[in-house]
Please model this.
Amino acid sequence: MVRKIIAVITAITGDRVIITSEAMKHVIEEHFRGIPQDIILETMERVLRDPTDLYRDGNNENKEYDFFYRLESGNFIVVIVKIIPDGAYLSSMYPIGQKHRNKHKKFKRIKL
Model:
């Protein structure tokens, strides 16, 4: 499967996160409708390079990192990155409330 790459961002973990056009389309259409792609990419870069919290799910065959960034409002944005044999790929990015989801209780918190 050929994926159209629109950006590569080096995360605080050292992983080079590949942003595909399909993943970006999902983020914009489902979670940030009306916000230009360049602003989404800048925000994504900030979250990946300087997260407030970072969690890792190592229970699956493939690793998953959830990068959280606290906004001035107190709410969070989360960027989910999946690590597969082909590389690190953006899975999704979306806003959440003022607390992490319950699934993160099972994840390992990474000290920054």
Q: What stands out?
A: The beta strands are 5-10, 16-20, 53-57, 63-70, 76-84, 87-96, 108-109. The chain has a mean pLDDT of 90.
